Amino acid sequence: MTETSTDSGWRGSIDGWLEAAYEALxxxxxxxxxxxxxxxRLSLSxxxxxxxxKDREELLDALVARWRDKNTGNLVRQTDAYAETIAEAVxxxxxxxxxxxxxxxxxxxxxxxxxxxxxxxxxxxQAADQTRLDAICRMxxxxxxxxxxxxxxxxxxxxxxxxxxSMQTREDLETRFLRIPEYVTIFGGATPKQSELDRFFSRxxxxxxxxxxxxx
Length: 216
Prior knowledge:
Distance between the termini: 34 Å
Structural class: mainly alpha
């Protein structure tokens, strides 16, 4: 069921409630994800919530699933994307850091904040970290790194980005682009080809241009 209406009025949709919960989590943490404030945000009655979710816990579970599917799912898929060289493979992972459609850093920050309040969420975050590290490690192994080297390189690549998120580091796109070739050299152990960098920069500049067009 995605949407419902009756004679008594509009009840919203499961996606609408989940999106409101997501926005509340990002703005105020898990304590802000409560049924009545969400209903007010959506201009809906509190009882309409129960057409879509059994209780608040079910909504929170849906939020966790949304984060897991997007951030972990997409990162793992990027590690499996076609790459002729380790530099190109690293750039495929870097797509996640620049494209919020692939990896939502604000969502990641909110989940890690939530994990400080909940042992269950801490376990979810730790499991996600391990799944992501394992995927990145496999990527390095496919490109000829031995087990120890692959593990260290995977940790270096991934934990630096988690540090960016945890510190809420902000960089404009051009500054990030300027640093990326050196990051790739450090994380991949090989200098990226100019053609690899050109393809990477082109797809992200194009995405930014499309976003700017939509905003205008």
